[in-house]
């Protein structure tokens, strides 16, 4: 099979569909496997927090701020369990707690506390005054919400607490704890929340790092000087900063955009970025003479959904599209070969 980076651009223009298909066949999706990352909580640890919470409250019959605070201080993972019962992100819980208690908890502080617990679930919480006050405000809010349950809302709306375990507050929570949940209801809530959704979001950068790390390995192995940019970094001459600039931002000759995504909307956004870089490379230049070469390194099923998006990417890069299993050809089939020292 011939790939677009192996032929002159006029051949691609004459028969783009052939090369679109070639890229599609080389795309590999890994959405079934996620990196664990730091802070991944195994089920036995999570279950331990649940059991500690259940025992401390007498099977959720005596849920008071004092009892919750005692168990969370000794078994911090119980705080994560409680958050999961509420169905909130750390930031959402912090926002509601600030509203209800008047004690300000920033979203950053809530995420830091949550991550600290996930990183070391067995480590008791520190005795710092601010930490204890934040925890107390979160727990006080949880007590209020779980006592109230889900209020009535308009027919065209749904309340976040209208779940099998919290719709009637502690009454349904106790019932779930004692009797177990109907399987259909568990499946329905899984449908609403998507399995591993929170974890997938937390490791999204690690998923992207797979491609960027692979590119770095290729460039380093070839002894090529490069500048890897940071997220939202501002680079003179680029209103949209590419992921890699070779050999440097002071003399850009090759720019690389890298992305792994399972979502076609995200893929489309990346295609738009690459198209913009292509236009920037031709700005104030004679016809067919670009300032720098634009290269796309892509992965995931998101790029394999819309043929028209792949066509745009093919034209914007003049065929210089590489997938993870084609990176061994990255140097020799682009201008990168001019900077190879090994």
What does this 3D model show about the protein?
The protein is α/β, with parallel strands linked by helices. A five-stranded mixed β-sheet has the order 1-2-3-4-5, with helices on both faces. The model has no long low-confidence stretch (mean pLDDT 90). Helix 6 crosses helix 8. The chain is elongated, with a radius of gyration of 26 Å. Helices cover 50% and strands 6% of the residues. The chain has 14 helices and five strands.
List keywords for this structure.
alpha/beta; 5-stranded mixed β-sheet; 50% helix
Low-confidence stretches: none
Task: Look at the helices and sheets and give the structural class.
Answer: alpha/beta
Question: What distance lies between the first and last C-alpha atoms, to the nearest angstrom?
Answer: 28 Å
* Number of DSSP-assigned strands: 5
Shape: elongated
Task: Give the % helix.
Answer: 40-55%
Strands ordered across the widest β-sheet: 1-2-3-4-5
- Biggest sheet character: 5 strands, mixed
Strand content: 5-15%
Radius of gyration (CA) equals 26 Å
Order of helices and strands: HHHHHHHHHHHHEEEHEHE
State mean pLDDT (0 to 100 scale): 90
Please report the number of helical segments: 14
């Amino acid at each position: 099979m011939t790939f677009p980076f192996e032929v002159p651009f006029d051949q691609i223009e004459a028969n783009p569909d052939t090369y679109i298909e070639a890229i599609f066949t080389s795309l590999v999706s890994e959405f079934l496997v996620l990196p664990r990352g730091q802070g991944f909580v195994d089920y036995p640890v999570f279950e331990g927090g649940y059991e500690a919470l259940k025992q401390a409250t007498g099977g959720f019959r005596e849920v008071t701020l004092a009892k919750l605070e005692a168990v969370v201080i000794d078994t911090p993972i119980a705080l994560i369990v409680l958050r999961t019962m509420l169905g909130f992100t750390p930031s959402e819980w912090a926002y509601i707690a600030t509203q209800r208690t008047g004690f300000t908890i920033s979203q950053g502080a809530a995420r830091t506390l949550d991550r600290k617990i996930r990183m070391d679930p067995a480590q008791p919480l520190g005795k710092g005054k601010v930490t204890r006050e934040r925890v107390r405000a979160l727990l006080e809010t949880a007590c209020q919400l779980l006592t109230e349950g889900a209020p009535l809302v308009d027919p065209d709306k749904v309340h976040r607490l209208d779940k099998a375990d919290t719709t009637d507050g502690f009454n349904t929570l106790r019932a779930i704890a004692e009797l177990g949940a109907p399987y259909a209801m568990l499946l329905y809530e899984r449908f609403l929340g998507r399995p591993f959704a929170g974890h997938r979001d937390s490791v999204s950068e690690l998923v992207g790092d797979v491609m960027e790390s692979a590119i770095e390995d290729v460039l380093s192995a070839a002894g090529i000087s490069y500048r890897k940019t940071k997220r939202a970094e501002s680079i003179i001459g680029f209103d949209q900063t590419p992921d890699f600039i070779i050999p440097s931002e002071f003399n850009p000759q090759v720019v690389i955009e890298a992305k792994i995504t399972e979502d076609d909307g995200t893929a489309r956004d990346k295609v738009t970025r690459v198209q913009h870089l292509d236009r920037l490379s031709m700005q104030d230049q004679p016809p067919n003479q670009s300032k720098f070469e634009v290269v796309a390194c892509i992965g995931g099923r998101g790029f394999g959904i819309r043929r028209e998006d792949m066509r745009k990417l093919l034209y914007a890069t003049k065929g210089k599209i590489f997938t993870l299993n084609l990176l061994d050809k990255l140097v020799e089939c682009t201008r990168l070969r001019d900077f190879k020292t090994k």
